[in-house]
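lol ok so funny story. i was supposed to be doing the assay writeup but got distracted and ended up predicting the structure for this chain instead. priorities right. anyway since i did it might as well share w the group, maybe its usefull for someone
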Amino acid sequence: MHLRATAVTMATVLGTYGCALLIGHKAGLHVDSIVQCVVIASAFGRIQRVLDRTDRLLACAVLPCAAAGGTELTTLSQRHPQVGDVAFVLAMAGSIWLRRFGLRATRVGTLVALPLVTVLVVPGGTEAVGGHERTGWAAVMALVAVAWGMLLMWVAQRIGFVRRPPAADVVTAAGPARGGMPAGTRMALQMAAALAAAFTAGRMLWPDHWAWVVLTAFLVCSGARSRADVLVKGCGERSARRSARRWRGRSPDRSDPGRTPWWC
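and the output, tada:
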C-alpha cells in the first residue's frame, strides 16, 4: 500500500509540475515559483494519505494562504534578515503549538508548515514578476497542487488503489497529559529555541549557507520521539550534507554568470 500511495504522490507532482510550467510561462514567473509549487505538491502528496475529506477541504483554504505568506516571508528575509528570521521562528513554532488543540488542528499546522519549509529550500532570486503579484501567483500554484492531489487521491480511493483514512474524529485520541506544560506547547518552544540557535549560528558562521543550518535543525527536531531519535536524525543530516558538498565539488563552477544556476 505504501508503494501505491507513493505512485499517487508522484502522479500529483508530475501533474502539478506540468501545470506550473504552463502557468509560469504564461505569467512570466521565475523558476523559483515553479520549484516552490513542486515542493508543496510533493509534501502534500505524502501527508494527504492520512487526510480525510474535511482535512482536504481545509487544505484548499490553508495551503494557498500559507504559500502566499511564505512568499512574503521570503521577501521580508531578503530585505530585513533579522525580522524575517524572527517571523519564521514564530510561524513555525505556532504551527506546532496548534497540536495541543487536537488531531484536526495538528493537520492544519502541518499544512501551514509546508510552505514555510520552501522558504529554506527554494533559492531566492530576481523574479520576472515582483511585488505582491508574485504572492498571488504563489497562492494559485499552491491551489493547483492541492487540486491535483485531491483529484488523484479521490480517483485512487474510488477504484480501491489506496485505502481511505479514518476521519479525524474517530481516530483514537491520545491520553490526557500527566500534568505540567502541554506537549504541543513544549514541542513548539523546543522548535523555537532550536531554530533561533540555528539562525544565529548560520548567519554568523556560514552566511552563504545559513539555510542549510536552519533546515537541518527543523528536520532533526520535527517529529523526534526521543533523544536517540534526535541523534539518529542528526547523523543522517550530517551524512546528507557531506554528500551534497561532494556533489557540489563535481558540479560546474557557479561563479561563472554564463552557466546555468545549480538549482535549475
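The radius of gyration is 19 Å. Residues 68 and 133 are 10 Å apart (CA to CA).
back to the writeup now i swear
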